[in-house]
Amino acid sequence: LEMWRVAWQIFLHHPLMGAGSGAFMKETARMVETHDISPGITRYDHPHNDYFNAMVSWGVLGLVAYLLVLGLPLKLYIGAVRTGTGDRKAAGFVGIIMISGLLIFGLTETMFTHSIVMSWYVTFTAMLTAIMLRASARVGWEKQRTAA
Length: 148
Known about the structure:
- This protein is an all-alpha fold.
- It is built from five helices and no strands.
- The longest helix has about 35 residues, at about 50-85.
- The protein starts with a helix and ends with a helix.
- The model has no long low-confidence stretch (mean pLDDT about 90).
């Protein structure tokens, strides 16, 4: 919780564009020198929270970008569950579960600072989107075939 408090203070000093990628340690060291925080925080290079990490590193703009990276596919998946059938609906459910997990895990870890998680997310998002598009195309093709 102390790391989150420190991250919030750093964000308040750099709200729009953030302090820069990887600046958490530098900023905490500066805050220790001014006796604003406990020295124990300086051993951490991120606040162990994706949302605070985005705010510290890239400010409000980074937080919005991070939320869009997760939110836009989530909106697509929710739409697939509501209106889709078969494979499209199943892929939508899997996507919702995947993004929900990332949103929850992001509360206590910086998931997207790990290149393997980013690679995994991009790969699965592309795969689920391809499944949904293929299922939609198949439904459209079957409607055309039955109409003819």
